[in-house]
What does this fold into?
Amino acid sequence: MSSQQRRTAKITAIGKYLPDKILSNFDLEKMVDTTDEWIWSRTGIRERHLVRDGEATSHMATQAALDLLRKRQLDPKKIDCIIVATVTPDMFFPATACLVQNNLGATRAWGFDLSAACSGFLFALDTGARMIESGQYSNVLVIGADTMSAILDYTDRATCVLFGDGAGAVLLEPCEEGTEGIIDSILRCDGSGAEYLYMEGGGSLLPPTAETVANKQHFLVQDGRAVFKYAVKWMADISAEVAERNSLTSQDIRLFIPHQANKRIIDASAERLGLTEDQLLSNIDRYANTTAATIPLGMADAVEDGRLQPGDNVILAAFGAGFTWGGMYIRWSKIH
Ligand code: ACO
It folds into this structure.
């Protein structure tokens, strides 16, 4: 790359980690008043992976990063920055990114956590890409990881069936602008949606007390119908907006990798783009909603299944608590 050419970021390696414990819909039938039929028909979920006692977000994030480093054969000392998108950090501080940095031996890296719920990975990927573009960094590790089982009430059938645990990681490296990599993104938030999806307790507004625990204020709360209404519209809108802004027709898009919250939301967004089943990545049946991990897990599965080749046009889209949402256009690169 000559000094005249502007540089941008491309994904060069992907890693993933899913805990080995599986919770099926049939297991949930024994825990709450639900059925496999209800969960499958309303959400498209069959099963999800859950951590075991003592395993937390930093452990899953580290495993996903190690998988990536093995594939890329990259010395951890070459990593410049680690961004971990999560709403379930091991603890408030230190940041999960610091724990991952230490686990990896990434002794030259700095890092931080980014909180944007289900849009977290997309926000982190865009942030990492801007860091590469700045010219100051050449190896940025972007991880999406969430231990949703830590903040779910397993007596509440409306929420506990929806989520799973997992982590995915990508490495960003420089490339020549316009040829490949992250071409465009549109990101948004609207805090007026905060009332529909939140975890109330444990922060500075409502520090933990015996009362907040008794009131179950340390669990995720969701108005499913309200979130569904916004998610269906805004994820579809932003996917269409990013495609139109880049003059991409449905035929131009090789793969659409949306956030995996509900198969009906996924299908509505794909339909809006005019895509067929083979242009859509959906793995919600096996993993459920892993929050910040859904998109990197989707990318990892697409690569494993040989569904992406260099030059392919890929659209990513997400919607989550905040509300937060976004769309991104990537021209796919060679993945190690
Ligand atoms: N099993 C059986 N019945 C259930 C269950 C269950 N697990 N959960 C709810 N029900 C019942 C309800 O009580 C309700 O019964 P009622 O009619 O007698 O009151 C009925 O099923 C219908 O409930 P709805 O909430 O209307 O069901 P809906 O079809 O909307 O599906 C769902 C619920 C799956 C939660 C859906 O609304 C959804 O996917 N919402 C969006 C989720 C999302 O996108 N979240 C954003 C990302 S998450 C993040 O950012 C952390």
